[in-house]
Amino acid sequence: MNRRRLKSLGLALLVLGLWALYFAICSAPTGAAFVYVDF
Amino acid sequence: MLEFIPLPGLWLLFLLLGLIPAGRSLLPRQIAVLLASLGILFAATGWQTCAFYTALGLIAVGAGEWLQRAREGALRRTVFALSVGGMVGVLVVYLAFRSYVQKYFVGLPSLSYLAFRGIALLASCRARSAGGPAAGLLQMLFMPASLTGPITRVENFMAEQRDDARILKRMAAGFAMLIGGRLANPYVLDRLAETARLAPWHYWLGAVANSFDLYLTFAGFSHLILGLGLLVGFRLPDNFNNPYLATSIGDFWRRWHISLSFWIRDYLYIPLGGSRKGLARKCLNLMFAMGICGAWHGLESHYVIWGLYHGALLSIESLLSAAGWHPVTRLAGPLYRPVKIAIVFALATFGWILFRYQMFDVVVYLKGMVGR
């Protein structure tokens, strides 16, 4: 596997990890900025 | 409605829409993305809001198409003025009666974005540079961007602009920022009037957390929306570029909510005369443009004062620059750059207190910061 493909694979895995982490810690409702200021 | 943006199903839908061939004509994909946008809006809000959005989109595109074809003359100028006036009218009514409007149009996304995108569309049509009704309707109704920007231009939807390599980068940046925003959020002070008196450092920490909460949450969603746009072949305008590394307030506004800053510059500040009519007029134009920028977020006094505060900062910067006076560069010597970054961050952070809290709470907050 060449360096470029390895980099893409790493980035894809990072995205999946961050996506999962987002749902783990961000899906509960809070007084987040966007709720407050109604963007 | 922002909670829809990270859902895997939405990304899968946009991935499939991006596979529709666009070699000969972009129209099939434009129509499919348009239908998907309306479908999302309908599912999230119901038929009233969906019908309202669609009607407003059709009226703007109808007026725009007529402006594209009509001969130059008094009638064309009148139709342009009336259609822009209509957009402004819708925005003002929405902002003035927001809570009432949102009771009837359940889940209505902010009309501020829709109105500014509509005016941008009409301006492109007046310049005869818009690209047909499908692109016009996408400019009005492309769903992810209707929620929280960026404020697109019709040119973004007129041709396929693939940049697949950036999709994953946008997603990584978006999710990382949203997580960062969520980590900062608990330190932001809320319900100030009900909160018991805290030590001053709570207010200072809260102010910094507020700056990062606003930035990371807003920029995080913007990155994800840009990623969704890229999935279907539309390169939407960048909205953030490390705003807290800005070395002046002017620089800050070239890095924060860039699509809004450029909209204000192109459709408000420059038509008012910009910097072409002398220094005093430039300062007046800056104050007016930034006041409108504040009011665009809401007609409550704290938004307007926040806008005027930034207008005043930009004016002071212009005056200092015109006088050739650069105090930070002179006093801080080789450290001038980090000192400037720190000063701009502090000024922006103070601004975010004005932005987030009602004026009564701002007073409570500032008293809390100095322990009174």
Give me the secondary-structure topology.
The complex is a heterodimer of chains A (39) and B (372).
Chain A: H1 3-26, H2 33-37
Chain B: H1 8-17, H2 27-45, H3 47-69, H4 74-96, H5 98-104, H6 111-126, H7 133-141, H8 143-148, H9 165-184, H10 200-231, H11 249-253, H12 258-269, H13 279-297, H14 301-322, H15 327-332, H16 336-356, H17 359-369
Helix pairs in contact in B: 2-3, 2-7, 3-4, 3-6, 3-7, 4-6, 6-7, 9-10, 10-16, 10-17, 12-13, 13-14, 14-16
General description of the model:
- The complex is a heterodimer of chains A (39) and B (372).
- Chain A has helices at 3-26, 33-37.
- Chain A has 39 residues and is mainly alpha-helical.
- Chain A is rod-shaped and about 40 Å long.
- The N and C termini of chain A lie far apart (44 Å).
- Mean pLDDT of chain A is 74; it is low at 31-39.
- By secondary structure, chain B is mostly helical.
- Chain B contains 17 helices and no strands.
- The relative contact order of chain B is 0.09.
- The A-B interface holds A 8, 11-12, 14-15, 18-19, 21-23, 25-27, 30-34, 36-39 and B 2-3, 6, 8, 98, 110, 147-149, 168-169, 171-172, 175-176, 178-179, 181-183, 185-186, 188, 190, 210, 213-214, 217-218, 221, 297-298, 355-356.
Structure in a nutshell:
Chain A has 39 residues and is mainly α. Helices cover 74% and strands 0% of the residues of chain A. Residues 31-39 of chain A have low confidence and may be disordered.
Keywords:
A: 39 residues, B: mainly alpha, 3 domains
Q: Any idea how many domains of chain B? A: 3
- The percentage helix of chain B is over 70%
Rg over CA atoms of chain B = 22 Å
Task: Tally the helices of chain A.
Answer: 2
Please state the overall shape of chain A, judged from the principal axes of the Cα atoms.
rod-shaped
Q: What is the count of distinct domains of chain A? A: 1
Report the average pLDDT across residues of chain B. Answer: 91
Structural class of chain B: mainly alpha
Tally the helices of chain B: what do you get?
17
